[in-house]
TrEMBL record:
<dbReference type="GO" id="GO:0015159">
    <property type="term" value="F:polysaccharide transmembrane transporter activity"/>
</dbReference>
<dbReference type="InterPro" id="IPR003715">
    <property type="entry name" value="Poly_export_N"/>
</dbReference>
<feature type="domain" description="Soluble ligand binding">
    <location>
        <begin position="207"/>
        <end position="252"/>
    </location>
</feature>
<feature type="signal peptide">
    <location>
        <begin position="1"/>
        <end position="25"/>
    </location>
</feature>
<feature type="domain" description="Soluble ligand binding">
    <location>
        <begin position="128"/>
        <end position="164"/>
    </location>
</feature>
<dbReference type="InterPro" id="IPR049712">
    <property type="entry name" value="Poly_export"/>
</dbReference>
<dbReference type="InterPro" id="IPR019554">
    <property type="entry name" value="Soluble_ligand-bd"/>
</dbReference>
<keyword id="KW-0732">Signal</keyword>
<dbReference type="Pfam" id="PF10531">
    <property type="entry name" value="SLBB"/>
</dbReference>
<protein>
    <submittedName>
        <fullName>Sugar ABC transporter substrate-binding protein</fullName>
    </submittedName>
</protein>
<feature type="domain" description="Polysaccharide export protein N-terminal">
    <location>
        <begin position="46"/>
        <end position="122"/>
    </location>
</feature>
<dbReference type="Pfam" id="PF02563">
    <property type="entry name" value="Poly_export"/>
</dbReference>
């Protein structure tokens, strides 16, 4: 397969540090039509459909033209400034789209014949999310791949022992916060994370069990826990326990409570003493 060349004019060649009339050669395609690429120190690969934004750092590789390849950061106005062709809009495009636009600019300007351009993201700045609360490694995380709620919490080290089994998601699009159970792996926990999202893992919710139980105290509130199960967590009733229980919620007594009712966060369960 012949290699296509283009001759730079003297002034352009000089600005690249080449002698007038020097040839910028387009590299021959590698196997299966893909240009040959260096494998060492490759930048991170953006997830499919990743849209570039301001302050993202990108590596632009024009194959066979080291003088035109550059690592740069997208400006606040969304552009990158390239040799000869000047500013090109980058924000709002995928890496594939930007690479194609750069190739067209060099070709239409007469600088290269059939240029092959690749764009990789080396620092994801515009697309970050925040993970806070009871995780080992809270902080900002770059969306350098497709994360779900569950996988991003795992990336932050998982939930601490005293953390809840749910998160509060505050979407980056300013829609209302939502509570998402981490146990719902086939549902909301598999929801894709978007730029600007904030994920908060709160402290584990608690139920308090006192009175005629073998191990009174506070206990983590599990999903769909009933008062009967809460009593079991507290070691079960003593021999002196009656079948009557009293529940207080936010300082107020709750009437007509059954042992099979669901516990609410911070409920106080008191197992009464049997009257002989």
């Amino acid at each position: 397969m012949p290699i296509k060349n283009t001759i730079l004019h003297g002034a352009l060649a000089a600005s690249l540090g080449l002698v007038p009339g020097a040839v910028l050669a387009q590299t021959a395609p590698g196997p299966a039509g893909n240009p040959a690429r260096a494998t060492a120190n490759r930048p991170a690969t953006a997830p499919a459909g990743y849209v570039l934004g301001s302050n993202d750092e990108i590596q632009i590789t024009v194959f066979g033209q080291e003088g035109l390849s550059v690592k740069t950061r997208i400006k606040d106005d969304g552009t990158v400034n390239l040799a000869f062709v000047g500013p090109i809009q980058a924000a709002g495009k995928t890496t594939l789209q930007l690479g194609q636009d750069i190739a067209r600019a060099y070709a239409s300007g007469g600088y290269l014949a059939s240029p092959s351009v690749n764009v990789d993201v080396t620092d994801f700045i515009s697309s970050r999310v925040t993970v806070l609360g009871f995780v080992p490694n809270p902080g900002n995380y770059a969306l350098n791949r497709d994360y779900t709620i569950a996988s991003l919490v795992a990336e932050a080290g998982g939930v601490k022992e005293n953390g809840a089994n749910f998160v509060i998601l505050t979407p980056g699009d300013k829609s209302p916060p939502v509570r998402i159970s981490l146990a719902d792996l086939q549902g909301d926990a598999s929801r894709r994370v978007n730029p600007g999202d904030q994920i908060f893992v709160p402290q584990v919710e608690t139920v308090y069990v006192y009175g005629q139980v073998n191990k009174p105290g506070s206990f983590p509130l599990r999903p769909d826990m009933t008062y009967r199960q809460a009593m079991a967590e507290a070691g079960g009733p003593t021999l002196a326990a009656s079948k009557k229980i009293e529940v207080r919620r936010k300082g107020q007594k709750v009437d007509n409570v059954s042992l099979d009712d669901l516990v609410q966060p911070d409920d106080v369960l008191v197992v009464k003493e049997r009257i002989f």
